[in-house]
Design brief:
Number of strands: 9
Structural class: alpha/beta
Helix content: 25-40%
Strand order of the largest sheet: 3-2-1-4-5-6-9
CATH architecture: 3-Layer(aba) Sandwich
Distance between the termini: 39 Å
Number of domains: 1
CATH superfamily: NAD(P)-binding Rossmann-like Domain
Number of helices: 9
CATH topology: Rossmann fold
């Protein structure tokens, strides 16, 4: 496996992934609706809503990492966000099927559980939140991610293609983590995401691990740090903000994460190595 197509390569995570692939010696085909002046590889401007353009763009790739998407609700109309994210992912998977590409890794989101953007707030059923926890979004973005996960499962059933849906938590660069500063000391700021996050360097390593690992079929995985985005201990966070959630499926000694990454660590032989504490010290 030598040539990797990366959609969204001009974006935040896509740019970091493409750069690391190049650093590791891969040939990268960067696809996006705009060019990047940072990448030193072949770049193709594509409309991912056009299947023909997608097929032409990824032709010759051994695997696809699909990270292009509208990354949150609110920036466009609801129906446009949903249609854009769903159509582009379908087209990437269909293109892979047509061309015989056997591995696709695509960006899903912890937002699919529904807590992050819910206008009507609700509590998790239990802690820590793992991949079998119900996904109950109340908006277009989280819903689009659920549809995309199911689309990947369908292509796996139909073709045997290996498809990984990466349920990324809040992805933050080292500079962004450093800038959070005082916000981290006010835990209510990150309650809606269950204080979950992932350093972008760990998100990159997980993404590449999903591409290089074999044998998992179709899978959805939480990609998150092992600690919380808070300087409070986890038990204190639960007692203060989620006293009604009595189903605690583990004990917490320190600042352990409330969104579980155990499945990703096991399936991908991966683990996060960075913490916001690294930037604070």
């Amino acid at each position: 496996m030598k040539t990797i197509a990366v959609t969204g390569a001009s974006g935040k995570l896509g740019g970091w992934v493409a750069a690391e692939l190049l650093n590791q010696g891969y040939t990268v085909i960067a696809l996006d609706n705009r060019r990047s002046d940072k990448l030193r590889c072949r770049q193709i401007t594509v409309d991912l809503g056009n299947l023909g353009q997608v097929i032409g763009g990824v032709n010759g790739a051994d695997a696809i990492i699909h990270l292009a998407a509208i990354p949150a609700p609110g920036s466009f109309s609801n129906e446009f966000i949903f249609a854009n994210n769903v159509q582009s992912t379908y087209n990437v998977l269909e293109a892979a099927s047509v061309l015989g590409i056997r591995k696709v890794v695509h960006g899903s989101s912890e937002s699919s559980y529904g807590f992050a953007w819910a206008p009507r707030k609700f509590d998790p059923d239990y802690f820590p939140v793992d991949e079998v926890h119900p996904q109950q979004p109340q908006e277009c973005y989280g819903l689009s991610k659920i549809v995309n996960e199911q689309t990947g499962e369908m292509f796996n059933r139909r073709t045997g293609m290996q498809v990984a849906a990466m349920r990324y938590s809040l992805i933050a660069t080292p500079d962004e983590l450093k800038s959070f500063g005082e916000r981290i000391k006010q835990p209510a700021n990150f309650r809606n995401i269950l204080w979950s996050y992932v350093d972008i360097r760990d998100a990159v390593s997980a993404t590449i691990a999903a591409m290089t690992t074999d044998g998992y079929g179709a899978v959805s995985l939480n990609i998150t740090s092992s600690d919380t985005l808070s300087d409070w201990n986890t038990e204190r966070l639960l007692d203060e903000f989620y006293p009604e959630v009595r189903d605690r499926r583990r004990s917490y000694e320190g600042r352990e994460a409330l969104v579980s990454n155990e499945a990703a660590c096991r399936v991908l032989n991966w683990k996060p190595v960075y913490s916001w504490k690294d930037q604070a010290e």
